[in-house]
Amino acid sequence: MSRQSKNLTNLSVTNNQMENLMSKPIHVLLADDHAVVRAGIRQFLDHAPDITVIAEADDGAMAMQLIERHKPDVAVLDIQMPKATGIKVTRWVRANFRDIGVLILTAYDDDPYVMAVLQAGANGYVLKTAAPADIVQAVHDVYEGKSALDPVVAQKLMSQIANSNAPQPNYETLTDRELEVLRLAGKGFTNKAIGVQLGISDRTVQGHLAKTYSKLQVGSRTEAVMKAVALGLMATEII
User: Fold this and answer.
1) Which ranges of 71-125 would DSSP assign to H, the alpha helix?
2) pTM of the model as a whole
3) C-alpha span between 93 and 75 (Å, rounded)
4) Cβ distance 144 to 190 under 8 Å?
5) pLDDT digits 0-9 by tens, 7-23
6) Is residue 88's pLDDT more than 60?
7) What is the C-alpha to C-alpha distance for residues 197 and 159, in angstroms, rounded to an integer?
8) Mapped to the 3 state alphabet, what secondary structure does 102-159 carry?
9) Residue 155 carries which DSSP code?
10) Going from the N-terminus, what domains does the chain have, and what CATH number goes with each?
């Protein structure tokens, strides 16, 4: 082979390497505790030519393990997940991997959730009702260091800023006992364990939780804990 041919071959290899580098896909970790939802999201993310889902997690603890192992470009997280919420995972990512983008993809557009997760350091917040193309675009925006907010969420934030001096929504005050029960519930205690800890019956614990759900306008202990934290009624370290 002539020297000129060798040079052309080397140039070709170099060009191919540059093309590969330029076309490097965005590596995404997807975390959602609903397998069917996760599969649907993965399908249209993988369909994008420059996005590859490299790992999936069905709870927050697994998400943190896989993020540490794979170091994706973007972590797409649900808010409500077993073992660790999307808020806790986001806070952990910001403390340990500042270059990884975090996109929250959730069904919740409640103000306390939005503010809590943005304060934790998320780069974007998109609702699951968004069009697939909009979610793909949000992944690109987060990867490029931009903010990505669902129009519904953005409108709520703008309204909140515009009405910052207006009276805030009122929630019926929780009693000290209800807060005690909720704090223990947030730490993973069962109703029986909470009863033992506080010296009350399981039925009484259940009653306190039911009243708490009603006051906070939620339907589960996870939602109750998250809303209580977002409203400043409990320490953020619990989620």
Assistant:
1) 86-96, 111-120
2) 0.65
3) 9
4) no
5) 444 444 444 444 444 46
6) yes
7) 43
8) EEEEECCCCHHHHHHHHHHCCCEEEECCCCHHHHHHHHHHHHCCCCEECHHHHHHHHH
9) H
10) 24-162 (3.40.50.2300), 176-238 (1.10.10.10)
